[in-house]
Amino acid sequence: MDRSELVCKGLIVAGKHIMLRSEVTPGQWNTVKITVKDLPLYSVSNQDVLDAVKAHCPVYLEVKYSNIWHNSKITNIWNGDWFLYILQTDLAKLPDLLDVLTYRVRVFKPLAMTKCKRCGGDGHHSSDSKCPARMTDEMADTVETFQGEGSPLSNLHQCLEGCKIKDRGTSFLTSEHHYQFKKLKAHDKGEEAYPICS
Questions:
Q1: Which distant-in-sequence residues (6+ apart) come within 8 Å of 107 by Cβ?
Q2: 97-100 vs 103-108, strand pairing mode
Q3: Cα–Cα distance list, 70 to 20, 42, 113, 127 (Å)
Q4: Could you give the CA distance from residue 190 to residue 169 in angstroms, rounded to a whole number?
Q5: Is 11 left (phi over 0), alpha (psi -120 to 50) or beta?
Q6: CA gap 128, 172 in Å, rounded
Q7: Which residues contact 149 (CB under 8 A, 6 or more apart)?
Q8: Using CA atoms, how far apart are residues 99 and 28, in angstroms rounded to an integer?
Q9: From CA 49, how far away is CA 101, in angstroms rounded?
Q10: Which residues contact 54 (CB under 8 A, 6 or more apart)?
Q11: Model-level pTM?
Q12: Do strands 31-37 and 97-100 pair parallel, antiparallel, or not at all (unpaired)?
């Protein structure tokens, strides 16, 4: 868990969710802090972020920003995260992914209300031991792991010398080349896509 997740979600100690002091706003004990992430710096205004969240639930207090930490001290350099405060009872109304203008962004909420990405259950992460879909040690022994272009399971693996992946008359060395080409074409960046072709 990185620092931003820790600050916005709190901790679970001995099965009890503990909110960090910064998660509770003064005089607003029934509000919790949420964090909007993945917005490019200076790409949208405070009002744009507020409008996106207010479309789902009311927001309390003004938008706040998260700054970068360096050598155990907070700097005046913004890291791009936006903090807002909503009522604890409104957490279920706010989705985990949010559209702010043309950007799709993640919303971090306190842990007690989050859903596991693996099993879909409430109140735990996919790596927690209480996740019913978590891999056991016995299961781990049967999983084939791979890394790098030498493995045939890797997207960067070239199957045989001289072998290429072909799609509509275009050749690619690996499936990763093909994927990157398709992604650039989908975003109308054809001039950048063609050098990927082999």
A1: 34, 35, 36, 37, 53, 94, 95, 96, 97, 98
A2: antiparallel
A3: 21, 21, 31, 28
A4: 16
A5: beta
A6: 40
A7: 156, 157, 158, 174
A8: 27
A9: 9
A10: none
A11: 0.44
A12: unpaired
Which residue type is seen at 31?
T
Cα(134)–Cα(126) distance, rounded to whole angstroms?
A: 7
pLDDT tens digits, the chain, 198 residues: what are they?
555 556 556 677 777 766 655 444 444 456 788 889 888 777 888 899 999 999 998 887 778 887 777 777 777 777 778 888 888 778 888 898 999 998 888 998 876 445 677 777 776 666 677 777 776 666 667 767 666 677 777 777 776 666 778 888 888 878 788 888 887 888 777 777 766 665
Half-sphere exposure of 100 (CA within 13 A, CB side): 23
Read off the amino acid at residue 136: T
Q: How far is CA 82 from CA 6, 63, 64, 139, 177, in A?
A: 15, 7, 6, 40, 35
Of 174, 176, 157, residue with least CA distance to 165 = 174
